Amino acid sequence: MYTVYGIPNCDTVKKVRDWLDAHKIKYDFHNYKTDGITAAKLKTWCGQVGWETILNKKSTTWRELDAKTQATINNEKKAIELLVQNTSAIKRPVIEKAGKVITVGFNAAAYEELF
């Protein structure tokens, strides 16, 4: 079973959920806003795909941080600290199966190959 991590009002997450539903792929949805995310889970993801992939520097949350704060987020530990407190700065969605990150973000062509 797949788990889709994200927030329900994110346009990209909506596209992914619609795509998975249209292809009859079953998944559980984990809402960062209501369910949160642990530092341990983020550390696992960062170990698999890198903290730079998990941290969404295009997010509104990231862009609203002042330059000084952004400059301090320069390693995995700092990124995880930020992401636990500001889940909207996590790249969305993260799709996981059996503890392994399958993909981060959405690309229809890649999804055709993955699923």
UniProtKB/TrEMBL annotation:
Cited InterPro entries: Arsenate_reductase-like, Thioredoxin-like_sf, Tscrpt_reg_Spx/MgsR
Protein family membership: Belongs to the ArsC family.
NCBIfam families: arsC_related (TIGR01617), PRK10853.1 (NF008107)
Name of protein: ArsC family reductase
Organism: Sediminibacterium roseum
